[in-house]
Write a structure and sequence with these properties.
three-stranded antiparallel β-sheet, elongated, 119 residues
Length: 119
């Protein structure tokens, strides 16, 4: 098992004051069986309103926020600590016929989720 501390900072700078900015942030870690979030802090400055977390339907966590007061810059900072457990990967890859069968197996929810990538 490994523990990681991650700090990510993104700054936005404008030539002229912006009255309002709407943003969708894709920085938050997913909840996975092999990954444990020990600590997370996502800070936007200036403070947004409204701001809320949502799910994109594939398990990805999104942070949707709007800065509503005039500003010429803003910053998004993520501090994160996660542990990752070692996973065992199967050797080799599936044959095309096997992959097509799995993609059409709508009784298995994980195969159904993957099928959206075929369109």
């Amino acid at each position: 098992m490994r523990t990681y501390r991650i700090r990510h900072s993104t700054g936005y700078f404008y030539d002229h004051p912006v009255m309002r900015s709407r943003n969708l942030c894709l920085l938050l870690p997913r909840y996975l069986s092999y990954q444990t979030v020990l600590y997370e802090s996502l800070v936007v400055n200036p403070e947004p309103e409204p701001a809320f977390e949502l799910d994109d339907g594939l398990g990805n966590r999104l942070y949707d926020f709007t800065v509503v007061k005039p500003h010429i810059n803003f910053e998004v900072v993520l501090d994160l600590r996660v542990t990752i457990q070692e996973r065992i990967w199967k050797e080799g890859c599936a044959k095309l016929g096997d992959a097509l069968y799995l993609q059409s197996d709508y009784h298995n929810s994980s195969h159904l989720e993957a099928s959206i990538f075929t369109f």
